[in-house]
Amino acid sequence: MKKILFFLLSLIILASCGKDEPSANKGKLDPNAMILIRPAAGVRATVSGLTALEIVEQGHEIQFTTRYSDDKYNEETIYTASRGFSEAQRDLTIPALKMWGTDVINQKGNYVRDFTHAYDIYITRLLYIKEGTTDTLIYDPTIKTTQIGQFDTVITDTIAYIPEDVINSVRPLIESAYADANYTEVYRLFNEAFTFLPFE
């Protein structure tokens, strides 16, 4: 009887030793995650273009074209979508603009293709112009409505873009990490992969 108990105990110990090491931490779904849109490496001031910091300070919204709407593909329709940037969606230290992560993984945890399958992705600013003068006011979130009321015309000015090769290269990485439920990798890509270039 002792031999049988010893044998069973030995089997249990051997079985526990043979277990695989725990898998890497894949993280959890975070509905408050943000997508950082950073300047591409080497972006600096140019004579005609804005600096990365100026783009982050002045960026009013991101506009993009897509055939997806609420993750539904439409062969016949092209959608133009936009997302505004509030003061909380600007990081002047990095510098970077921020989009809500729910534009890629929604509150229910579903992958949404509207942005990752987009093209013609532009960052714009608003210019307020007083007719007959050279007075121009560049929009920022701290401007009061009374200041804007003094100007006659509002122009949307494109100041930066996300190259299509950036979106095309990050899309399969996000989709692969999402399929593997590896949210740690998804959010790393959110923080590092999306980059913009200024218009010159």
Beta-strand content bin: 25-35%
Give, in order, the helices and strands: HEHEEEEEEEEHEHHE
Radius of gyration: 24 Å
Principal-axes geometry comes out as globular
Plain-language structure description:
The protein is of the alpha+beta class and 200 residues long. It has a domain at 28-125 and 158-198. 26% of the residues lie in helices and 28% in strands. The chain is built from five helices and eleven strands; from the N terminus they run αβαββββββββαβααβ. The strands form two sheets. Strands 1, 2, 5, 6, 7, 8, 9, 10 and 11 form a nine-stranded mixed beta sheet that branches. The protein has a two-stranded antiparallel sheet with strand order 3-4. Strand 3 and strand 4 form a beta hairpin. The protein is globular and about 60 Å long. The N and C termini lie far apart (85 Å).
Entry summary:
By secondary structure, this protein is α+β, with helices and mostly antiparallel strands. It has 5 helices and 11 strands; from the N terminus they run αβαββββββββαβααβ.
Annotate the secondary structure layout:
Layout: H1 2-17, E1 34-39, H2 52-58, E2 61-66, E3 68-69, E4 72-73, E5 79-84, E6 90-91, E7 96-100, E8 119-129, E9 136-138, H3 145-148, E10 153-162, H4 164-179, H5 183-192, E11 195-198
Parallel strand pairs: 1-11
Antiparallel strand pairs: 1-7, 2-5, 2-8, 3-4, 6-7, 8-9, 8-10, 10-11
Helix pairs in contact: 4-5
Can you give keywords for this protein?
alpha+beta, two-stranded antiparallel ribbon, globular
